[in-house]
Design goal:
10 helices, alpha/beta, 20% strand, 298 residues, two-stranded parallel ribbon, Rossmann fold
Amino acid sequence: MRVLVSGASGLIGSSVTAELIQDGHEVYTLGRSASADPKRLSWNIEDHTGSLNNLGSLDAVIHLAGEPIGNKRWTPKQRGRIIDSRLAGTDFLITLLREAGLEPEVFICASAIGFYGDRGDETLDESSPPGNGFLASLVMDWESHAQGATAVANRIVHLRTGIVLSAYEGALAKQLPLFKYGLGATFGSGSQYISWIHLEDAVRAIILALSDSTISGPVNLVAPVPVTNSQFSKTVAKVLRKPLLLKVPGLILELAFGEEFADEMLLVSQRVVPTALQTAGFEFRFPELEPALLDLLR
């Protein structure tokens, strides 16, 4: 297959790109930096520069580009960057595909389980209604804009991604130094659910979505066994053979990170299950947390 990947320098994008190349696919990447490599294409969302005219043909698009949501406080300026990078970025990519006359079979677009909002211990699958809050509103708009790809693609997939576990990047990697020094902690009450997925399973699921024509619409990119924040922290500490003695009250998190960020990123409860993937017959290599952490941290 000839595949175009945006956001190829990120945690998921770099892993998906490497796996596709290893499997013998022809992969083109789309990023902000210009390159002499004909397979590394450049674009700029802000000034609407870029072109896909030299591709000739394309079988699939994996659109993962977007401003990270967890790296900075949600100031009005940062919220604007987060929104524009997703909505305007998706619109511009679809425009580039249309202008180049490209008609990929499938357009796979990043999304997030933030769609569901804070839902306590309610079990959520792809048929569950959206929740409330900044992220829920953002994801609803993002998926709506991605549906614009029906103008060029036969099939649209929205990857509602949970917390992707890696020892090198992402939420787990940021917490590891504290856990290794015995300073790991639970957040708030610890009863809020975390929906996670091992990076390897996330990559395998995305590649399945490329070729399986039965997969379309929203797809929860999470493992089948979500855990509470308390269970997550205890399991990380157990795998690292470190104590878990600390608990950070929600008020402290809100003061440190901002109320909205803390409530939607650190204290939110989302008990999400991967019904679409399981219906498609996807077999998780790491359905449960402890084996996943043992693999990543051994």
